[in-house]
């Protein structure tokens, strides 16, 4: 098996010329140009639906029906399958790391998976000590301290990501594509990832870096290519661009004020939580309240307990303590109880928990109110009403989709998030819980989400906004509760605090 070269060589140029691809009803890529070289970290950016992921799927052989030409080192290559891409040294680490690893195998077995695959039909004996020894050599090369004999289902998200990177370079890797690699990571984990990326760059590996976190791009990337609506917009050295210029290239216009100020006047406490703990031990004796017409932030770093709190409030895990809505005690044992009580949750992992990816946009938007759309004693679905409600929500939220019948898995991340939110708008809940709602979402879609939240509070709804993005907490909330180690350590008025103070308490400061 070939492995990543240990020393740098001459840069190798990768060029994609006039790449186009169509799906039923959609031209996803239109004459796109893209070029990068080994020994370079190249950002590929654009709004959700710009075509970034589609272009990379062409490059990695997932979409063979493209037109156009691909050159590596000046030689034309034909990439029509993932094997073609891997044989050319092109590897990808997807955003959804859990689906790319085999959870019941060890780290070493996942890293050396290509060696374990046997297509010959003949019996093959595996030298397990040798396999794990080779996996350890790859991990050592990355300076990643994970035991190759540890099972994948015991790893953190950051460790799973490093395992995927190790798998990618276990064979010759010329170009490594990282799709939203920092989305699930803490700042310290992100810094460790950047160390690995810089090391790979020094070894003459080309990194294609896809991210919506613009400040990070300027920290790690040498060059940037911007796409919009399936077309190439610009390629430029990172040092020649600013964040504002990037946003204008991505949207095709200047970005208006990102955080719309809602005009609601908060009323009496509507949703009250007292002495609240979950049975996992990750939420401990939490107390807070949310008024009608108010956005309350739950701030904290990755691992502080924000997601566990949101899920426990919604009945996903068993909990003790009190939850009251408009003075009425709530008995919530399951998510179904929460929905009936008037709660809505937009979860952090939208593809796993927020939407049904293999169902249509229409099915997803109406799933919460399905009983209300049935006739004949609840036995026959009124497809006409379902279609009408779905089309109205698609229009109101600006969801980019060929039709309400399109599968959610074919939508961009930002549009999937709008579907995850839209189903709760149809349900007309009283308390909306948003857990990292802008994760993996571009700047334009972020602003759309912030506008939706502003409209909700103007309607007198109560909103809980949990995020580790402190700039968003400062921009969208009225009050903030800071979480650290599973408990709330500080309550602050947003107008009277700043990001530095939020970070101070988020890191355990007293």
Summarize the structure.
This protein folds into two domains: 162 residues, Rossmann fold; 238 residues, Rossmann fold, CATH 3.40.50. The protein is built from 19 helices and 22 strands.
How does the major sheet shape up?
A: 6 strands, mixed
Helix fraction by DSSP (H/I, runs of at least 4):
25-40%
Which structural category do the helix and sheet elements fall into? alpha/beta
Low-confidence stretches: 1-8
Distance between the termini: 53 Å
CATH topology of the largest domain: Rossmann fold
Estimated radius of gyration:
24 Å
If strands are numbered along the chain, what order do they take across the biggest sheet? 6-7-8-3-9-10
Annotated CATH homologous superfamily of the largest domain: P-loop containing nucleotide triphosphate hydrolases
The domain count comes to 2
Number of strands: 22
**Reported CATH architecture of the largest domain:** 3-Layer(aba) Sandwich
The helix count comes to 19
* Highest-level CATH class of the largest domain: Alpha Beta
Average pLDDT confidence is 87
* General shape: globular
Strand content: 15-25%
């Amino acid at each position: 098996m070939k492995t990543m070269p240990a020393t740098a060589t001459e840069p190798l140029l990768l060029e994609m010329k006039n790449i186009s691809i169509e799906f039923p009803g959609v031209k996803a890529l239109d004459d796109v140009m893209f070029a990068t070289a080994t020994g370079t970290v190249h950002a590929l950016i654009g709004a959700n639906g710009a075509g970034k992921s589609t272009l990379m799927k062409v490059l990695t052989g997932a979409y063979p029906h493209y037109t156009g030409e691909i050159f590596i080192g000046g030689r034309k290559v034909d990439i029509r399958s993932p094997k073609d891409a891997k044989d050319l040294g092109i590897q990808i680490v997807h955003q959804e790391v859990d689906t790319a690893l085999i959870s019941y195998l060890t780290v070493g077995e996942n890293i050396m998976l290509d060696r374990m695959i046997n297509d010959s039909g003949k019996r093959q004996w595996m030298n397990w000590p040798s396999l794990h020894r080779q996996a350890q050599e790859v991990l050592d090369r990355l300076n990643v301290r994970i035991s190759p004999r540890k099972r994948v289902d015991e790893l953190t998200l950051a460790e799973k990501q490093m395992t995927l990177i190790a798998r990618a370079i276990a064979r010759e890797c010329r170009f490594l594509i990282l799709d939203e690699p920092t989305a699930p990571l803490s700042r310290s984990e992100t810094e460790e990832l950047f160390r690995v990326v810089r090391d790979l760059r020094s070894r003459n590996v080309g990194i294609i870096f896809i991210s919506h976190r613009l400040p990070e791009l300027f920290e790690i990337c040498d060059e940037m290519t911007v796409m919009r609506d399936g077309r190439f917009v610009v390629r430029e050295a990172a040092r020649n661009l600013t964040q504002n210029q990037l946003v204008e290239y991505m949207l095709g216009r200047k970005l208006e004020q990102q955080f719309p100020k809602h005009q609601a006047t908060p009323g009496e406490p509507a949703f009250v939580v007292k002495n609240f703990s979950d049975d996992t031990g990750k939420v401990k004796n939490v107390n807070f309240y949310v008024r009608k017409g108010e956005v309350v932030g739950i701030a904290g770093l990755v691992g502080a307990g924000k997601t566990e709190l949101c899920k426990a409030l919604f009945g996903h895990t068993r909990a003790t303590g009190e939850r009251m809505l408009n003075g009425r005690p709530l008995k919530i044992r399951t998510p179904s109880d929460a929905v009936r009580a008037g709660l809505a949750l937009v979860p952090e992992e939208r593809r796993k928990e927020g939407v049904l990816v293999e169902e249509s946009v229409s099915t997803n938007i109406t799933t919460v109110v399905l009983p209300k759309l049935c006739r004949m004693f609840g036995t026959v679905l009124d497809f006409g009403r379902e279609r009408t409600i779905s089309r109205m929500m698609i229009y109101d939220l600006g969801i980019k989709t060929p039709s309400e019948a399109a599968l959610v898995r074919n939508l961009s991340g930002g549009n999937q998030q709008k579907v995850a939110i839209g189903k709760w708008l149809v349900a007309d809940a009283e308390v909306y819980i948003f857990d990292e709602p802008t994760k993996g979402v571009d700047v334009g879609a972020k602003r759309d989400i912030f506008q939706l939240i502003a409209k909700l509070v103007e309607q007198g709804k109560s909103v809980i906004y949990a995020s580790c993005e402190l700039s968003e907490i400062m921009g969208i909330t009225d009050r903030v509760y800071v979480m650290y180690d599973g408990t709330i350590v500080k309550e602050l008025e947003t107008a009277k605090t700043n990001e530095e103070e939020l970070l101070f308490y988020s890191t355990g400061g007293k």
